[in-house]
Amino acid sequence: MIQKSLQFTHDVLSQFLTNAFNLDENKVVLNTIIDTDGNIPLQNKNKVVVSLINVERETLKPFYGRNQKLSNGNYAEIRPSERYNLDILITSNFDDYSETLKFLNAVILFFQTNTAVDSASFSSMPGGINRLEYDIEKITYHQMHSLWTAMGAKYQPSVIYKMRLLTLQAGESHSFTTELKETKNSVSV
């Protein structure tokens, strides 16, 4: 689901920028800022780069039962699904600084317009994803400096969004319980 959510975000952002600027080519890439050799990947040149920088588990506990009825009438204990938030860094990486700022501004406008997306508004949303919410992250200059230093990169104009409520479910059963059937005089298993 992480890859699907990021790819979907890439696709809808790319479509927005293509329409906004009447582009012939895709200007968004889903990639790391720095490759394993410490270099800027060539495919990032003159692009808006979408990068995953953090995965955070939502700590709210689910309020629903964990037993799921099977077709044979028995029940399987399924661990509840978990929800995750993804921090994504959107970097505008263009040779021309005015293009950098133009595209960064358009990215912010996209997320301001699309604070939440669901399958009702976007038919291209992948199966298994019901809704994604995007919140801009308030980050200080020092936090941003630390982030770029940790990545081993030189700062580029960028913004961080928290993509909320990505649900992951392993779907594996941990135990089974047989169905209880009541009779007139007794309960049988």
- Spans of at least 5 consecutive residues whose pLDDT stays below 50 are 168-175
Termini, distance in Å?
39 Å
How many domains, in number, for the residues? 1
H-E order: HEEEEEHEEHEEEE
Order of strands, main sheet, comes to 1-2-5-8-7-6
Class from helix and strand fractions: alpha+beta
What shape does the CA trace take? elongated
Query: Main β-sheet, in a few words?
Result: 6 strands, mixed
Q: Got a strand count?
A: 11
Share of helical residues: 25-40%
Number of helices: 3
Beta-strand portion reads 25-35%
C-alpha Rg (nearest Å): 22 Å
Mean pLDDT level: 85
Report on this structure.
It is a single chain. With 189 residues, this protein is of the alpha+beta class. It has one domain. 25% of the residues lie in helices and 33% in strands. It has 3 helices and 11 strands, in the order H-E-E-E-E-E-H-E-E-H-E-E-E-E. It has a 6-stranded mixed β-sheet with strand order 1-2-5-8-7-6. It has a 3-stranded antiparallel β-sheet with strand order 3-4-9, with no helix packed on it. It has a two-stranded antiparallel ribbon with strand order 10-11. Helix 1 (2-21) packs across helix 2 (97-113). The radius of gyration is 22 Å and the shape is elongated. Residues 168-175 have low confidence and may be disordered.
Tags for this model:
189 residues, six-stranded mixed beta sheet, 3 helices
At a glance:
The chain is α+β, with helices and mostly antiparallel strands and 189 residues long. It contains three helices and eleven strands; from the N terminus they run αβββββαββαββββ. The strands form three sheets. It has a six-stranded mixed beta sheet with strand order 1-2-5-8-7-6. The chain has a three-stranded antiparallel beta sheet with strand order 3-4-9, with no helix packed on it. The chain has a two-stranded antiparallel ribbon with strand order 10-11.
